[in-house]
Amino acid sequence: MEFRKAGVIGAGAWGTALALVCARAGLDVVLQAREPEVVDSIRARRINEAFLPGVELDARVSVTPDFADLADCDLILAVPPAQFMRSTLAAFQPHAKPGAPILLCSKGIERGSLKLMTQVLAETLPDAPAAVLSGPSFAADVSRGLPTAVTLACEDAALGEELMWTLSAPGFRPYLATDLIGAEVGGAIKNVLAIACGLSEGRGLGRSAHAALITRGFAEMTRLGVALGAEPQTVAGLCGLGDLVLTCSSPQSRNMSLGLALGQGQTVEQALAGKRSVAEGYESAPAVRELAARAGVEMPICEGVAALLAGETTVEGLIDALLSRPLKSEQG
């Protein structure tokens, strides 16, 4: 299959950056935006002022509010917030080109159903070939063409290789995998762990505590991933460990910045107020906690973050709970 035209659903910072990746790879791109002001801004000034200011879009990128304008696209990149993936795909379904792959680029677990985005896709567009794009990638870096490596997971290895070569562009390097679960689990859990790292930073707990949270958080990510059917080596790759390191190491991460604000004494409501971009960890934390309980997997850091966000504990209570846990083997 030859891909010539890509549709990108969702014109937040990440969707806009991926539209630029597609254009740099030589594809014509239709970027679907829900917000009228985003459509107007791109059409008038070639810039998404609301979500990616200062970055001019390639001439190959057009913008539309209408899913019907994506009907002739050979490839779809789905980039709405994870909690809106189901409703977005359902709205797009009547316009989907038969056989066009859907590349899922949002990270999260659906609340209520506890389903991964590939499972949501299977229920809304069951005939669409599925793939997942995940890895350490800030939209601002990708939009500027700075070097970025990501995981592209697809169970159909031949299709995955075509997608890998299609999206490879200067500064953007996909690595191929076939483990969809591993690619998705890492991307969802790292957002919750980034909130914990932000809390540590906001409380001034030091770099040693930060390193410990990343390391023990990675152990939690691996345990749940394996319980759900992921391959450990996938979780140890770009889409798991790589994404975890990036998201937990910079306030540029929406999730870490949320934790930072909470650690500095803001309430959850204050920390989220006025934010246009979604901190996926806030939405995914309850689902991760419930999924871990269902799978019988111990995830004290993620469980603590979920409890804090739900108002069941305080920052001090979360820290005390983690530090007072029974001593154990590191491999346990």
| Overall pLDDT metric | 96
CATH architecture of the largest domain: 3-Layer(aba) Sandwich
Q: What amount of the residues lies in strands?
A: 5-15%
> Gyration radius, to the nearest Å?
19 Å
* Count of DSSP H/I helices: 15
- Tell me roughly what share of residues is in helical segments: 40-55%
The count of strands amounts to 10
Question: Given this structure, which CATH class of the largest domain is correct?
Answer: Alpha Beta
Measured distance between first and last alpha carbons: 46 Å
Annotated CATH topology of the largest domain: Rossmann fold
Label the overall shape: globular
Task: Write up this protein.
- Its main location: cytoplasm.
- Sn-glycerol 3-phosphate binds at residues 107, 135, 137, 190, 243, 253-255.
- The protein has helices at 13-24, 36-45, 85-92, 117-124, 139-143, 157-167, 180-202, 207-227, 232-235, 238-247, 254-263, 268-272, 280-295, 300-309, 315-323; strands spanning 5-9, 28-32, 47-48, 52-56, 61-64, 75-78, 102-104, 130-134, 148-153, 172-177.
- The protein has 2 domains: 5-178, Rossmann fold (3-Layer(aba) Sandwich), CATH 3.40.50; 181-324, Orthogonal Bundle (N-(1-d-carboxylethyl)-l-norvaline Dehydrogenase, domain 2).
- It is globular.
- Strand 3 (47-48) and strand 4 (52-56) form a beta hairpin.
- By secondary structure, the chain is α/β, with parallel strands linked by helices.
- The chain has an 8-stranded mixed beta sheet, sandwiched between helices. It has a two-stranded antiparallel sheet with strand order 3-4.
- The chain is built from 15 helices and 10 strands.
